[in-house]
Amino acid sequence: MMEYLGNKELLKLKKTAFLASSTIPPDMVLKCYDWATAKHEGCIVSGFSSKLEQDVLHFLLKARCPVILVLARCMYKVIPAELKEAMEEGRLLILSVSNANRQSKVTAHARNKYICEIADQILFVGVTEKSSLAELASAYKDKTATLANATGMGE
Fold this sequence. Notes:
Number of strands: 7
Helix content: 25-40%
Mean pLDDT: 91
CATH architecture: 3-Layer(aba) Sandwich
CATH topology: Rossmann fold
């Protein structure tokens, strides 16, 4: 059961997925921050649940980049304060792909798979063969981008 809150028109834009492992080398973190503050074409889609993903969301919102936030749990009852301005300005779509009260490994995997399916390109960061994202990185390697060639770098 899919629930939507916000600007569904964002689904029509070119979508770059940002999926980061929970453990990232420090030099990669700074590169991700640089990427997040660059100008982007289209919108960025992610679950924004890892620490790095949350930081990237902060930078994307500050840069006024359109964002699709995909939850691995039921829809928010109250929109978090950090998201209100983007929601009011039509720069945000929140999707819920689960009716679970809390995110779990199963719902997070389903969310990440959905993100990969709707994305035009996917930026996987810090994925190793032991990462929970490894299977998806392999399955969607034809859509995989790097920090250097992901939408918006160098513009």
